[in-house]
Amino acid sequence: MSFTLLIHGGAGNITPAQLNAEQEKDYHNGLKEALDIGYEVLSKGGTALDAIVASITLLENNPLFNAGRGAVFTKKGINEMDAAIMDGSNLAAGAIAGVRNIKNPILLAREVMLHSGHVLLSGSGAAEFALNQGIEMAPDEYFFNKSRYDQWVEIRDTDFYQLDHKEDNLKGTVPHTDYKFGTVGAVACDEHGNLAAGTSTGGMTNKRFGRIGDSPIIGAGTYANNVTCAISCTGHGEHFIRAVVAHDVSCLMEYKGLSLQDACAKVIKDKLVKIGGEGGLIAVDAKGNFDFCFNSAGMYRGMRNSEGKEQIAFYG
Question: Which residues are catalytic?
Fold first, then answer.
């Protein structure tokens, strides 16, 4: 039986003009390392679930990406993270929202799925559960990233929020137009035909009021079902929640008989666009068919399968 792994490191206004050669190399290496570790799990007969956790953990540890160590700063100047995981073989799912000082949020999401009796835990309750489960914590200093901090300082006294890295100057009057959504995620199909999906994010720079995006919402930013597909999204979370993007792709496959690629295109390039949503997703089905689908300028993405195919790309 064949197996397939896809990962993403965010979508948005990612163009050759935004990255120099050194940055391109850094992103390429970061994506490749995450692909390699997840692929190794699959190649040794491991589960889709274990593969995506391995890949996402590595992406969370890489400060290039807005998840885990690279999480952006909120209005209060702290890091609040969200993550979700789903097992397509039994529809089990676990998610956490608004957590702090959790070194690898995806590991906590998995614990929620396996040991809490619940699907979604948030804030201080999720932190208490993490302590009970022995999840590794990290101090505030671990999450401090100078470029992320500078992004926040630039807009902390405004009502604007940023979707991630932006190079242009806000000047306190207009929101940035040069952005990317730095969420990370992975989907996989293992040799048994089982699917899994996971997503992890630091959310939006300068976000307020305990804002939570689509990443930890099962069916919005993350979904897996062996009958159809596994999906991890990255984009403007509010729109992805309203459009229930991940589950909508699955429904188009299950109830309308659309192919994986056609279902993804319908949701991302038609339905989402009509409500002003921007971003993308990675997807795989139980036969190993896969898709990178996005309506933004680019998406950090990678794929590797047992047929010897490998792809790492940034731009549209």
Answer: 183
